Amino acid sequence: MRYDFLALGIALACLLFSSKTTEGSTDVFTQVSAGSFFTCALTNGGTPLCWGFNDDGRATPPAGIFQQITAGDAHTCGLKTDGTLACAGYNGFGQAAPPDGTFRQVSASDMYTCGLRTNQTVACWGSIGYDEIRPPDGTFSQVSAGGSLGCGVKTNGNVACWGDLYGKVTPPAGTFLQVSAGGDHACGVRIDGAVVCWGFNGQAQAPPPDGTFSQVSTGATYACGVRADDAVACWGDNFYGESTPPAGAFTRISASDDHACGVRTDGTLACWGNNSYGQSTPPGSQPTPTPTQAPTAVAIPTYAPTATNAVPTATPTGPLGIAGTVKPPPSGDDADPRASSEDSPLQPVSYALALAGTLLLAAAGWHAARRWHSR
Question: Which range has the worst mean pLDDT, 106-120, 229-243, 303-317?
Fold first, then answer.
């Protein structure tokens, strides 16, 4: 019977994999925003699309037509064509409950959100753990909500930051075009196109490369920027490949915890880094069923116990060299509903999978501890 199930599994796997192919997307995108384990993008028609982890509805964008979309830790906000805001997802700290009024821009973070009103003042809402929802007075041209700090470019070109400490709220002097607040540091593009970063530098995310840039986006412990020639450069932590962008020309990018996405000059999307929940697989990149060919029936072999394939009842040596008696499987009410591996021919595979899983969990725990320490 065990061989019947094994053959059936192999046959089904062959059917599934043989009926898959990769199809490209016909959508053209104008903007992308990488969140925590999910990503959202805006089509040229103003329709938001999200993919990846959807716990708390974070990857289910609000309904409507938008001119901008922003993905936070577990919530999403969008700027509608009439200037009002709409948010969806987790709202445990009020981060998904925007105030009334009209806005020019919105930026979602972990437990709070900030928006630039039409009168160019900044309003923030959500968690107040580090005063990140208390922006300074004055008028701004752009705002960015980071992990526990917010930053904005004032109308005079200076940068102002508020919230968390560790030097992140003390930006350098000078005139800036754009600023991006990340998990432990912030970066900005000066008026001459040079990028400057400040704050925590545990993963070498603060010293940017030389050259001129049109945009910069900071993640948890890394950053990426669009160069003047439209190529993307990233620096800092690269545990998941988040600092290894693809080649090509881009118009804008968005960096999150450990994955990043960008809009190419032809309007298509590209993502890189952690893809544990499909957050780095934009629409059109997923394998989709091919409807042109029906699956072919596969004969499932059966095996009757014979003298050559009968299960031994003597005392064999196990896969780890340990001798033991093979017990007959229980039946009836005494049968364990869980699969038993005591007499399974796949037991060596089970040991290999268990070992691989243990190593994977150990590596993930080490990386999480390193990131926690860097914060």
Answer: 303-317
Q: State how far the Cα of 317 lies from the Cα of 186, in Å rounded to an integer.
A: 60
Contacts of 200 (CB under 8 A, 6+ apart): 166, 167, 168, 184, 185, 206, 221, 374, 375
Q: pLDDT for 322-344, tens place per residue?
A: 333 333 333 333 333 333 333 33
CA angle 267, 271, 276 (to 5 degrees): 145
- Determine the 3-state secondary structure of 188 from DSSP: strand
pTM, full prediction:
0.71
Residue 89's SS3 state is: strand
Indicate the CATH number for domain 29-289.
2.130.10.30
- The domain segmentation of the chain, as residue ranges, is 29-289, 311-326+345-375
Q: Return the number of other C-beta atoms located less than 10 Å from residue 130's C-beta.
A: 19
What mean pLDDT value characterizes the chain? 77
- Burial annotation 295-322 (CB, 10 A radius, 16+ → b, else e): eeeeeeeeeeeeeeeeeeeeeeeeeeee
Among the residue ranges 9-18, 79-88, 188-197, 271-280, the one predicted with the least confidence is 9-18
Beta partners for residue 32, in sequence order: 41
Task: Please say whether the beta carbons of 29 and 268 come within 8 A.
Answer: yes
Instruction: Could you list the beta-strand ranges (E) of 1-96.
Output: 20-22, 29-34, 38-43, 48-52, 66-71, 75-80, 85-89
Q: Which residue in 374, 40, 37 sits closest to 222, CA to CA?
A: 374
User: With contact defined as beta carbons under 8 Å apart, do 69 and 76 qualify?
Assistant: yes
3-state secondary structure of 9: helix
75-84: pLDDT as tens digits:
999 999 999 9
- pLDDT tens track for 138-178: 999 999 999 888 999 999 999 999 987 555 668 999 999 99
Q: Which residue has the tokens 């005494």?
A: 334
185-190 vs 176-181, strand pairing mode: antiparallel
Q: Of 191, 174, 187, 190, which is closest to residue 218 (Cα–Cα)?
A: 187
